[in-house]
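[retry 2/3] XRE family transcriptional regulator: previous attempt timed out, resubmitting with same input.
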Amino acid sequence: MTAINFKQIRQMQGLNLKEAASGICSIQMLSRWENGTGNMDFEKTLKLLERVNITSSEYVHLANLDDTYQLSAELQKAWKQKDHTLIKRIARNSLQEFHLTSDILSLNYGAIACGLYHRLAKVNLLEIDEQNAFNKELSMITVWGQENISLFFNTIQVLSPKMIFQISAQLIENLDFAKQAGSDTFYFATTTLFEAVIALLISDNPSYAANILRQLNHFDFPQRETMLIIGRKFLNSLIDWQEPQNEQSILKIINFLLDMGLTMQAKNFLQVYKAVRKVKK
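[retry 2/3] XRE family transcriptional regulator: success.
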């Protein structure tokens, strides 16, 4: 049987690129993914498969994908179902495979699974020696495309503050490359750095967070990237709030988002503010 790719499945259902990508990713991002020249993160992949009415495991079989993709599909399924037990098992098995074989891909999947598990259970399964090994791999990255950015994004929560700061510094140095690689890559890189700043503030490391943000403040964001501009302003307000603890500028941004009808973004900003404020109490 000839393998069937996502593009064929989409076309079989009469969906064009715009219809398939709507509300999930840009048309350009989907096109590059279909043609094998771009990557797609876990949650977007799951949404795209839902759009064409197939499961991740069905896609693995239809596309005749290898064991590595099978593991990726299994992890995607576990995350979609918020299956703590399965995610934990994938993390343990992948990290055990890394210890036995020194296979970096197993380390990466193990770290990602640990990151997803932390989001659900607030428990870090990644041991110190594994964090150091993973950090070593991240520190060797010279080209920060979407795949490597996704690797960092999904593991921020299980890295030490010092590691988050070091890897963020590398990514900032490559932001010009990300911008040249396209708006999707630049947006993903920037929002990943926002997540790093938030993680550092929540872990009570404001000096690291402020250092990253100062560097981000030097970048000119396109006017069309309104949420990036607002997001950066919000984080600057959080940094400024650390000393005088004046919340007016923060609440002003949240209220502005509510007035604009951006309820979900306002809710996310409020959750971040509450998490940072909790650390300071």
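[retry 2/3] XRE family transcriptional regulator: The chain has a mean pLDDT of 87.
[retry 2/3] clearing retry counter.
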